[in-house]
Design brief:
mainly alpha
């Protein structure tokens, strides 16, 4: 029952997804925080040390995702020369390396705060949260499509 309550809160709060921008991102972040805290069963002491590290790494990952997206959208590959495509590919691989390094840094820093089991639980919780969020967004999109 304990696990059902955060899930219900998550789903209910997503029902107001019509709002866009910063407010929506804040709501998603708050729900993700609650979801991960519950899944990891973080103590108050662990949470106090965990969240600043996690949020710092997530901010850096978000910046890399944005950079990667911008790089890929600059020009369509068909519009690039072979040399330009190779440069773009190298830049994209470099960004992926940076993401991997951030993941290693996160694990390294968190291993001083929480157990390895909780770190693995974190990875699972992140994937599950993302899947649920995507599913919910698809459902909203489908409902809007039926109204048109």
């Amino acid at each position: 029952m304990k696990k059902l309550i955060p899930i219900l809160v998550l789903l209910i709060s997503f029902s107001g997804f019509a709002q866009r921008g910063a407010k929506m991102n804040e709501r998603i972040k708050a729900q993700k925080t609650a979801f991960i805290t519950e899944r990891l069963s973080l103590t108050a002491d662990e949470a106090e040390k965990f969240w600043p590290i996690y949020n710092e790494i997530e901010t850096k990952k978000k910046a890399l995702r944005k950079k990667s997206t911008l790089k890929r959208k600059e020009k369509h590959p068909d519009e690039l020369t072979e040399k330009e495509t190779k440069v773009l590919l190298d830049e994209m691989l470099d960004i992926e390396d940076q993401k991997h390094k951030l993941n290693r840094d996160l694990v390294s820093k968190l291993s001083n705060i929480i157990s390895s089991k909780k770190i693995i639980a974190l990875m699972r919780a992140e994937r599950e949260f993302d899947r649920r969020l995507l599913k919910h967004l698809r459902e909203i999109h489908e409902k809007r499509g039926k109204k048109d």
